[in-house]
């Protein structure tokens, strides 16, 4: 049954008719999950999405090799047992087309598409203090009045490309990983430059190398690339997963990165060097992020665990890559997790191919494109195709696409000039009735799970407001200050803080001029979920409601 929020009060200020009870921006994991939750509350919801279909990240990032780095059975919507039972991923790490199919399937299953407006960018939204509603404007010039506004903009949605002034003069073709064309790109017979060796570049390089005549990889900072250990999943695997799903989710909700892993319950110094080697070899064979968490505890905080785990990887790089100079260039000189480590699918092996050249641009940077390729200060590299896998203005950059104007005419990005401010990552003071879904200050973790728990909290909060006939919610300044100051403190307790020196996106350090500091919650996903529950059970003391 639809609950028209206008009908709940006789307040004359409410004369302004609502077009919707809630507008959700984005139709990726966050938008889909949010629409489902709000529909269950009986709200009239409109999802506004700039792409032509659902998917978000999985709509835009269609580059060769795009696939998840989380294990498929937990890179999933937890809220529906039916979905968990009906959908069987075909691989441990599904490809972009499969994730896109999954999101489409969930959309159709719950008939969500009818509340989605595609090819539409929400460009601005202003909080109208008199009616305590949001006025949201699209790029087509429509203006919608809504009680609640929810942003599911994605962590990595605002692509970054280095400003090469002469890119237009380049006679070949260029592509950006995060804006990949829908039709296949053929690299046969082409000389291809790949700029960037983050998670996107690491997935692209091995596949393009199989097709292209030659690939030049321009590397500024190497990454610790962990072998994925990908494999297909058959019926037997799914029977086992489904019979253990409760236990798997229990692990997910308690593991710092919301992944279904067991704690190692040991440090390297607890075992002999020979045992260390065996343990690391076993974890390496398992592959994926298990390598980081199931060999030794606290790789993110403990120097000794980090050194042992990264030292073993360094040895593997040198074993795999035949040319010692290339192997050395590929070996990072910073702790594991100071940059977000990608999973590799024959990544290091690719550098043994005759048609792949690694060029170190850490000291001699690429400065521009030319008619025929790319150049550093002293060398031109002639290529036919350039691929920019150069990352994103992450987390807060996603908010550049909408001018959000809160109470007193304050613009969100002005408020966040020195870094984001939120309470619980869910709301911002001076921005009543605006909920951020999967935005800044939520855990740096397996994001569908974070979204699921956060949206559940938002749903329960709005349900409580409806029960109590309230129309307004805003975090207190004190609670916002407290949560915001917790964020750097949590980061400081980890080795991730060293990411500032190696351009890590989770600190904003990859974007020239962006303030460097924690953009996410580094206190462990389980603690974040507990904080959400506690806040709700305590009656939402960090929020004003009326
Ligand atoms: P990224 O990790 O920020 O990597 C960008 C790369 O571009 C870096 O190697 C960077 O070098 C390089 N770069 C930027 N400007 C450059 C320049 N002017 N010259 C030379 N190199 C330059 O971006 P990403 O690979 O797109 O990944 C971002 C995040 O998205 C990941 O960490 C992950 O969270 C998510 N993601 C996930 C998956 C997955 O789960 N499968 C896949 C892709 C992305 P520096 O390191 O020196 O800055």
Automatic annotation (TrEMBL):
Q: What class of enzyme is it?
A: oxidoreductase
Key word NADP present in the record? yes
Per the UniProt entry, the Enzyme Commission number(s) are 1.14.13.-
Q: Does the keyword GTP-binding apply?
A: no
Q: Which UniProt keywords apply?
A: FAD, Flavoprotein, Monooxygenase, NADP, Oxidoreductase
| Entry's transmembrane regions | none
Superkingdom of source: Bacteria
Among SUPFAM superfamilies, the record links this protein to: FAD/NAD(P)-binding domain
Q: Which GO terms describe its molecular function?
A: monooxygenase activity
Q: By its UniProt entry, which InterPro entries does this protein fall under?
A: FAD-binding_Monooxygenases (IPR050775), FAD/NAD-bd_sf (IPR036188), Flavin_mOase-like (IPR020946)
Q: Which family does it belong to?
A: Belongs to the FAD-binding monooxygenase family.
For this protein, the record's PANTHER family field holds: DUAL-FUNCTIONAL MONOOXYGENASE_METHYLTRANSFERASE PSOF, L-ORNITHINE N(5)-MONOOXYGENASE-RELATED
- What's the name of the protein? Flavin-containing monooxygenase
Q: Which organism is it from?
A: Nocardia jiangxiensis
- Origin organism lineage: Bacteria, Bacillati, Actinomycetota, Actinomycetes, Mycobacteriales
């Amino acid at each position: 049954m639809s609950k028209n929020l206008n009908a709940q009060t006789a307040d004359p200020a409410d004369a302004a008719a609502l077009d919707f009870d809630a507008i959700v921006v984005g139709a990726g994991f966050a938008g889909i999950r949010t629409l489902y939750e709000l529909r269950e509350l009986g709200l009239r919801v409109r999802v506004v999405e700039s792409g032509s279909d659902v998917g978000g990240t999985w709509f835009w990032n269609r580059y060769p090799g795009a696939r998840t780095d989380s294990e498929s059975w937990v890179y999933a919507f937890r809220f529906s047992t039916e979905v968990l039972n009906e959908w069987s991923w075909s691989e441990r790490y599904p490809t972009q087309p499969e994730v896109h199919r999954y999101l489409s399937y969930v959309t159709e299953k719950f008939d969500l598409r009818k509340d989605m407006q595609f090819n539409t960018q929400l460009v601005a939204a202003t909080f109208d203090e008199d009616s305590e509603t949001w006025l949201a404007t699209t790029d087509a010039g429509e203006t919608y009045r809504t009680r609640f506004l929810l942003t599911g903009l994605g962590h990595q949605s605002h692509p970054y490309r280095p400003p090469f002034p002469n890119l237009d003069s380049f006679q070949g073709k260029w592509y950006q990983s995060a804006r990949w064309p829908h039709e296949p790109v053929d690299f046969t017979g082409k000389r291809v430059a790949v700029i960037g060796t983050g998670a996107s570049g690491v997935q692209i390089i091995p596949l393009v190398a199989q097709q292209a005549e030659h690939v030049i990889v321009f590397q500024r900072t190497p990454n610790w690339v962990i072998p994925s250990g990908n494999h297909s999943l058959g019926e037997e695997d799914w029977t086992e997963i489904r019979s253990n799903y409760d236990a798997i989710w229990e692990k997910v909700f308690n593991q710092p990165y919301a992944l279904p892993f067991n704690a190692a319950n040991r440090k390297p110094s607890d075992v002999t060097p020979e045992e260390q080697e065996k343990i690391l070899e076993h974890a390496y064979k398992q592959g994926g992020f298990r390598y980081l968490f199931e060999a030794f505890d606290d790789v993110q905080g403990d120097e000794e665990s980090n050194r042992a785990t990264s030292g073993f990887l360094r040895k593997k790089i040198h074993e795999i890559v035949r040319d010692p100079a290339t192997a050395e260039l590929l070996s990072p000189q910073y702790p594991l997790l100071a940059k977000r480590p990608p999973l590799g699918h024959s990544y290091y092996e690719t550098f043994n191919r005759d048609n792949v050249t690694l060029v170190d641009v850490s000291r001699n940077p690429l400065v521009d494109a030319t008619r025929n390729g790319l150049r550093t200060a002293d060398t031109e590299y002639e290529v036919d195709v350039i691929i920019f896998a150069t990352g994103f203005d992450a987390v807060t950059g996603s908010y550049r696409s909408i001018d959000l104007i809160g109470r007193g005419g304050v613009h969100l990005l002005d408020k966040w000039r020195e870094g984001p401010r939120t309470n619980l990552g869910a709301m911002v003071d001076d921005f009543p009735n605006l909920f951020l879904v999967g935005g800044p200050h939520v855990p740096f973790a397996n994001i569908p799970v974070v979204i699921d728990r956060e949206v559940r909290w938002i749903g329960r909060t709005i349900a409580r407001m409806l029960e109590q006939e309230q129309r307004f919610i805003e975090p207190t300044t004190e609670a916002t200050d407290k949560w915001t100051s917790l964020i750097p403190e949590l980061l400081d307790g980890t080795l991730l803080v060293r990411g500032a020196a190696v351009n890590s996106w989770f600190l904003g350090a990859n974007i020239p001029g962006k303030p460097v500091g924690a953009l996410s919650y580094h206190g462990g996903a389980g603690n974040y979920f507990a904080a959400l529950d506690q806040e709700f059970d305590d009656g939402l003391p960090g929020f004003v409601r009326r």
